[in-house]
Amino acid sequence: MVLIRTITTILTYVIGLCGMIPLFPWLAITPRLILVAGVLAGLWQDRNGRWQMKPWQLNCTVAAVFMYYALQFSRTNPVQPVISVLAVMLAVRMSGEKTVRYSLQIYALSTFCLASSSLFDLSPVFLIYLTVLLVTVALATVLLTFQDQDSAMIVSLANLKIIFVSALLMPTLAIPLLLFFFPIMPRTQLPLWHFLTPPATRISGYSDSVEPGSQSSVVSAQSLAFRAEMPPQAQVQLYWRGTVFNRTDGIRWTRVISMPDEQPEMNGRRIRQTIYREPSAASALVALDRPAAVALQRVKRSPDGVFEIIGRVGTRIHYTSDSVINENSLPRILINRSFYLQVPSQLPPRITALAERVVRSGESDRTRITFLENYFRNGNYNYSTKDLITGDKAIEQFLFEKKRGHCEFFASSFALVLRAAGIPCRLVGGYLGGEYNQLGGYYIVTDGNAHVWVEAFIDGSGWQRIDPSGFAANAGNVWQKSDTRGLGHRISLVLDSFNHSWNRMVIPYDFEQQINVLNSISTYVHEIRSSRILLNVAPYAVGVIVLTIILTVQKRIAFSAHVSNAFFIVFFVLWKINSESRQNWAG
User: Phi and psi of 447, rounded to 5°?
Assistant: First the structure.
């Protein structure tokens, strides 16, 4: 025997958590604490059977909270006060007695909280919480009708099973309606909050400049930058090109848009990728180095191989890129060497002396580049993102004293010496590496993969990619991934594959596709003829009527084999007549 009230109380907590958990990450610290305190207080009171706060006291608390957040409501801050009030109201109700009236209020507030979480994030997790909420609300609502009749009602497990099955029919019957309305109901590819205020875009893994020495440490963020659907590639090929920095003042590298034309010759093995980029403030589109073409509307291509989107930054986008995999990129025309040899008029003497050593090392640019590569390899340089050098002399101190820094130090100093030695070069910002998801067939690239490397121009060979960070003494330890192929890691890849499918199939289902679906339905409806429907349905309707008559007569007379055979003969004749009629109609 089970007490109905016990089951409804458990379901009420489940419903409350379905509204709290998705909204919890988007709340301020105070509403979070109130939510946790409300749940704990409710559990303690339900366990001990004591109700310390009366309803009017709870209502006064809610009114005070409402007034406090109402004063914070403004045009620039319309959402946070509202969701804070909803969270506090839900916490207050969860802390009180779970009567029928208050339980229904909890169900409504939990639904509003879950809906509010979609203002910030549209992920498949929302669908999971929504499904659990719909099922538990249906069960709890049915049980509350029994509790309303008798709060001390006790039922057997068999009867409880019958009640559960009956209650589950309600959300089950709603599934066809959901499938019907999904293609035609309006939706957006972004959370609604993006339309109320400017999108809170994530800081990209690379920025619009490279400035080593500006910060003492770099945090390796693991937030998702993009996914790339493509066959698996060798790790040495996983350089994801984003933007190019072609101007330096000796410390900071920036991008000058007005650059000379190059007309690169793109010959080699081509690899196609479909990139699904997360919301980002960057206009540069990332693709496998080097991209030859990007299939996306409103895209501008620069002579240095950078593709930039015009307009809609800060949204989740996807596009297709064709990349040419080769070591060099040879332009059809000679480059403007002076443009890629620009250096400050006053370089530190030690950097100038190192550049002179590079010049004296050989006659060709390739020999001089090899000399500088060996200088870095044998110089006991170490890759690090902590305890970095800061200040205007960071590059000089990195080269000759500390010899410790991240990719921006290695690439900036290497390129600066090359230019001082008369070798045209530039910096490339993008990403390095990524984890391949075998289940989904795509690479997962995070902001922690952000990277900067060098492109040097060699006569007769073109632009050659050089990664000075790979010359660090501890480069193998830095880029060698630990074996994390445990059960938890495999589960995370499965969940990421599901999340990717959601973003790829459900979220991009936009208004244009809805119009196409409606047009298809309209065309199908116009092609339907009532006479054809009657011709197809009538024989089966007659068969159903005959079957009903036979089953009715069966109650009065024995259902002999002759009657059964007669029925099937009649049904077969009707089916045959229907088939021939359809053929004549078609003819």
Answer: -65, -25
Same domain, 155 and 279: no
**Residues 316/224, Cβ–Cβ less than 8 Å:** no
| Nearest CA among 580, 504, 500, 511 for reference residue 539 | 580
Nearest to 146 by CA among 128, 127, 159, 129: 159
Per the CB < 8 A criterion, the answer to whether 82 and 113 are in contact is no
* pLDDT tens, residue by residue, 18-69: 989 988 888 888 888 988 988 888 888 877 766 556 666 666 766 777 777 7
Is there a contact between 272 and 313 (Cβ–Cβ < 8 Å)?
Answer: no
Q: Which of 442-446, 456-460, 473-477 has the lowest mean pLDDT?
A: 473-477
Cα 252 to Cα 97, 126, 340, distances in angstroms = 63, 43, 15
Check the CA dihedral 285-431-302-289 and report its sign. Answer: negative
Which residues, 6+ apart, have CB-to-CB distance to 486 below 8 Å? none
For the chain, how many residues are written?
587
Peptide linkage before 290 cis (omega within 30 of 0): yes
Tell me the C-alpha to C-alpha distance, in Å, between residue 548 and each of 131, 544, 553, 563, 564. 39, 6, 9, 13, 13
Distances (CA, A) of 224 to 249, 279, 499: 32, 10, 12
Residue 522 lies in a domain: no
Domain boundary among 469, 495, 521: 495
In degrees, to the nearest 5, what angle opens at C-alpha 440 toward C-alphas 435 and 446? 30
> Helices 29-48 and 80-95 sit at what angle, rounded to 10 degrees?
10
Q: Which residue has the tokens 């946070």?
A: 80
Domains identified in the chain, total number: 3
Q: Which domain holds residue 426?
A: 224-495
Measured distance CA(284)–CA(450) in Å, rounded: 14
